[in-house]
From TrEMBL:
It comes from the Bacteria. It comes from Acetonema longum DSM 6540. Gene3D superfamilies: Winged helix-like DNA-binding domain superfamily/Winged helix DNA-binding domain (1.10.10.10). InterPro entries: SatD, WH-like_DNA-bd_sf. Pfam families: SatD. This is SatD family (SatD).
Length: 214
């Protein structure tokens, strides 16, 4: 069976003035994510060395949503993630994501170390030759997504956050006291259509991987 191992790490954690509070927040986020994604978790979120967590998923296609949730709830703290796709050679630990071994974890470790050294902040790796070329494509799209996201202005981020919470463009226009067309322009200028397209391409390929090996 194919698994997806994710290793997440706080960037520059040792330099944080409130490191202990960030670690507590990190632990709380990991616990909430465990409950939220319980159906897709093979081995639960486990904070391993204070500034890092591991989780093992049953489905590769769940990884982007898991990562998005952790990033959102940990903001403005920066994190990097390594996603490893492959088999597990040991028994699955259903209590915590430690004491396991196999290509999925090896790939995730290499990926997170790479993410610490250079962009993008989320990197996918696998030892499976038939999937490997696809992960190169995913990493290129991920770099595109991150680059576009970082170019957004404060107003663009504000509008997109309200959209994500379920507000309509008309409601946002009224809330910000601007025209609806202005909201539409802000959405378009924030690279949202391009980013959405890239995210759909990643999701489609990850879904293919799940069907390929299950």
């Amino acid at each position: 069976m194919l698994y997806c191992a994710i290793i997440g790490d706080i960037v520059g954690s040792r330099k944080l003035a409130d490191r202990s509070e960030v670690q507590k927040k990190f632990q709380a986020v990991a616990e909430r994510a465990c409950r939220q994604y319980q159906a897709d978790i093979a081995s639960p979120f486990t904070v391993t060395i204070g500034d890092e967590f591991q989780v093992l998923l049953k489905r590769v296609q769940t990884a982007p949503e898991v990562i998005k949730t952790v990033i959102r709830e940990m903001a403005p703290i920066d994190l990097v993630f390594g996603v490893g796709i492959g088999d597990i050679s040991t028994d699955i630990n259903r209590e915590m994501a430690i004491g396991m071994d196999g290509p999925a974890f090896h790939a995730a470790r290499k990926a997170v170390e790479q993410a610490k050294r250079k962009k993008p902040g989320v990197i996918y790796r696998t030892a499976l030759p038939e999937v490997g070329a696809g992960t190169d494509m995913i990493n290129s799209l991920q770099y595109f997504i991150e680059s576009c996201s970082k170019k957004r202005t404060k107003r663009q981020k504000q509008v997109l956050e309200l959209l994500e919470k379920g507000s309509t463009q008309e409601e946002i226009a009224e809330h910000l006291d601007i025209k609806q067309q202005s909201v539409s322009n802000i959405v378009n200028w924030s690279y949202m259509p391009e980013i959405t397209g890239a995210q759909k391409a990643i999701a489609s390929y990850l879904e293919w991987i799940d069907h390929y090996r299950h």
